[in-house]
């Protein structure tokens, strides 16, 4: 690779702390700044905030302008966006207008927004990026790699494609997000209630970008609107999860599909099988190993199947989920910096690899 790219990490939370370590390990990247929202973290060394046992010599700040004034080549943006989507879009727009390339974990609707949100949302970002000569790439883990790059790469092995199906199969009993689990998904609520997630149109907004990006990659035009199918399963006994208690008879498991059809035939399907205890719904698919996986099934000629799981060195898939989210962003920085200015989707990126990361085989990054 050429010269080292100067990078600012934006946030040091569940994903950001792993991104800091990833940037430090990457031979082509240099950490030059870290932004934090928590006043308690200001002035602390990035290495300590990342949970490393050493200082990196970069102190965290909440001074936005000071970081933009560094004129870094890229910002790795991993701040929480779910509860402040439009403020986050404002931040990303400001960064690219300032000529700084961005890779971000959210808002996920920008992963592939075309046909998902109106152009009034995306046009200002694209205009700012082109004005600044910078690129923005948004890619979480779901949606993101497991639901776009992986299935599309698999379709390169096909002679005929009848249907592409991307599934998340997961046990959420250890997933600690009480508001998400109880109020948004509706676990522990009456089965005839309609939680926000199951309000018509919401699933297509949240995961429609997956379906539409795969369709774009396959060169097909989908029927409008996308189709949503849901199956709610009541608890056969009392369950207790780390986030919410689920009494007998209330909602305990959920299967949903967001479907892209062509002439009334299912062609691209995004689905989730979400349990709150591993013994629930034995008729549903289960991960081959562990508590959760992504599974790609392509029917046609030939029939193709891949199951993608991840585990941290300590075996915890909740931690490794944060690591893979962070590292896909960090490892994509050189490609996004090299990309044409604008909004860059997975369809625009070359093959992103773990170049320079083989243990003991690469020259260490310059101090």
Per-chain topology:
Layout (H helix, E strand, L loop, with lengths): L4 E6 L5 H10 L3 E7 L10 H4 L14 H6 L4 E4 L7 H13 L3 E4 L14 H14 L2 E4 L10 H7 L4 E12 L6 H7 L17 H17 L8 E8 L4 E2 L4 E2 L4 E12 L2 E11 L16 E10 L2 E5 L8 H22 L3 E2 L24
Parallel strand pairs: 1-2, 1-3, 3-4, 4-5, 5-14, 6-11
Antiparallel strand pairs: 6-12, 7-10, 8-9, 10-11, 12-13
Give an overview of the whole structure.
There is one protein chain. With 367 residues, the protein is of the alpha/beta class. The protein has 2 domains: 5-140 and 320-343, NAD(P)-binding Rossmann-like Domain (Rossmann fold, 3-Layer(aba) Sandwich); 158-301, no CATH class. 27% of the residues lie in helices and 24% in strands. It has helices spanning 16-25, 46-49, 64-69, 85-97, 119-132, 149-155, 178-184, 202-218, 317-338, and strands at residues 5-10, 29-35, 74-77, 101-104, 135-138, 160-171, 227-234, 239-240, 245-246, 251-262, 265-275, 292-301, 304-308, 342-343. α1 links the parallel β1 and β2. The longest helix is centred in the C-terminal third of the chain and has 22 residues, at 317-338. The two termini are 17 Å apart. Residues 147-353 form the 2,4-diaminopentanoate dehydrogenase C-terminal domain. This is 2,4-diaminopentanoate dehydrogenase C-terminal domain-containing protein.
